[in-house]
Structures are given as C-alpha cells and as structure tokens.
Amino acid sequence: MRLDKMLANSGFGTRKEVKKLLKTGVVKVDGNVVKDAKVHVDPEVQEVTVHDDIVEYREFIYLMMHKPPGLLSATEDHRQETVVDILQEEDKIFEPFPVGRLDKDTEGLLLLTNDGQLSHQLLSPKKHVPKTYYAKIDGEVTEDDIQAFQQGVTLDDGYETLPAELKILEAGPESQIEITIVEGKFHQVKRMFQAVGKTVIYLKRLSMGELKLDEDLELGEYRELTDEELELLQQRK
C-alpha cells in the first residue's frame, strides 16, 4: 500500500499532513529515509519508522454508530449528508462504509467498517443474521399479525418474506412492537406492515447479530467496537 495511506491509517494525520511529514525526512523504510508519498510498502514485511519509532500498522476499523434520522447510509452523496460525513477525519482516513443500510428516516444501530470480509458475512442472505427493530405502528397490531409474520408475508412486489418474530409491546391505535427479521430487503419492515394494512411511523434498529446498540450513544454519536463485540461478530465467519 502507499506509504502516505499507511501513515494516515496509523494516526499520523491526514494524507496532506503526512506528505508534509515525509518532506521533513523523519520517515524511514527499512532504515532508509523516504520522502515520496507514492512509495508502496508492505507493513507485514517492511519496517517503517517515524523519528526512529516503529509504526504499528492497523488495517481495519470497526465503528458502532447511533444513526440519527436524516442521514443516508452511504459513503458519499452529492446532494445529501451521509453517515460517513459526520465521522472524525482520523476515522474517515480508513475509508469505512456502512454495513447494510438504514433508511434515511430510520435511526439506531449502524456498523461502519472497512473490513469487506466481515461485511459480506453479516450481509450474506445465506447467513440469516437476525436484525431486531423497535417500531411505532399506526394501527392496532394483533395476534393475527404475529401469526402472519411467523409464516412470512407477501410484499408489494410479490416477494415472500422469511418468517419474522413479532412482539407486541403495546397495542392500541398507535402500537409499539419489536420485530426480528433475518433478511435485509429494501424498506423491509415498513413493507411487511404495509402487507397487513398498517404503517410504520417510527423505526429504530436495536441489534444486528450479537451486536447491540449502546444506549449510552446519543443520536449521531459513535465509538469503536470493544474487542468482545468484535469477537462476537467475527464468530459468524
């Protein structure tokens, strides 16, 4: 990988700041001063030092975000703000991307990483990774809806969903529920309720696989996963 990318990922600043650092001659690769940012290095094989201190390279980043409504689950968009736009520069340098999508108006747990293999494992339809949501529903959710979701419902495009677990927390003209699905179709939770004649008016993702939203995170806040949380996700590989 390029030397400037390696140093940026290792906490030595933005690419621009790293280029300035390189010009000062304090960066060495295998004992030789290197000033060219475009030089490629293999951090597994070569020794890179800054001010003669060995650089401990870090490849991946894993972030848990409490996604606020109004942001797109995308890396970039020319018209609207994305979840990546609100990251700190030192985290953007790793070029993380959201694992799966939350609708623009949906909030809750969102995982961002640059680990493509882990992302694939969590999103693969074959893996049936459960995702649990809390929702407010316009309409009274009933035992009939629980049964329908257990069997799978037919969406507006004719797709038959896999069975989903629906829990009624509070029934009434505006109901509160929790739902666990093992798929990730476009607007799936909203479309499932449409299929039984009801409308989702608020939606929040609580968990993905074994990873649960840290309720201490305010809307728009994020943190790195703990070693234990990462291990739980990696056990699915």
Describe the overall structure.
This protein has 237 residues and is α+β, with helices and mostly antiparallel strands. Helices cover 22% and strands 26% of the residues. The protein contains seven helices and 13 strands. The strands form two sheets. Strands 5, 6, 7, 8, 9, 10, 11, 12 and 13 form a nine-stranded mixed beta sheet that branches. A four-stranded antiparallel beta sheet has the order 2-1-3-4, with no helix packed on it. Strand 3 and strand 4 form a beta hairpin. Helix 1 packs across helix 2. The longest helix is centred in the first third of the chain and has 9 residues. The chain starts with a helix and ends with a helix. The relative contact order is 0.15. The model has no long low-confidence stretch (mean pLDDT 94).
Topology:
Blueprint: H1 3-9, H2 15-23, E1 27-29, E2 32-33, E3 48-50, E4 53-54, E5 62-67, H3 89-92, E6 97-98, E7 107-113, H4 116-123, E8 131-138, H5 143-151, E9 165-170, E10 174-181, H6 188-195, E11 199-208, E12 211-212, E13 222-224, H7 227-234
Parallel strand pairs: 7-11
Antiparallel strand pairs: 1-2, 1-3, 3-4, 5-7, 5-13, 6-7, 8-10, 8-11, 9-10, 11-12
Helix pairs in contact: 1-2
Q: Please report the total strand number as a whole number.
A: 13
Radius of gyration: 22 Å
Number of helices: 7
Dominant shape: elongated
Beta-strand residue percentage: 25-35%
SSE run = HHEEEEEHEEHEHEEHEEEH
- Report how far the terminal alpha carbons are from each other: 26 Å
Assembly status:
single chain
Major sheet, described briefly? 9 strands, mixed
- Mean pLDDT comes to 94
Determine the structural class based on helices, strands and strand pairing.
Answer: alpha+beta
Q: Helix fraction? A: 10-25%
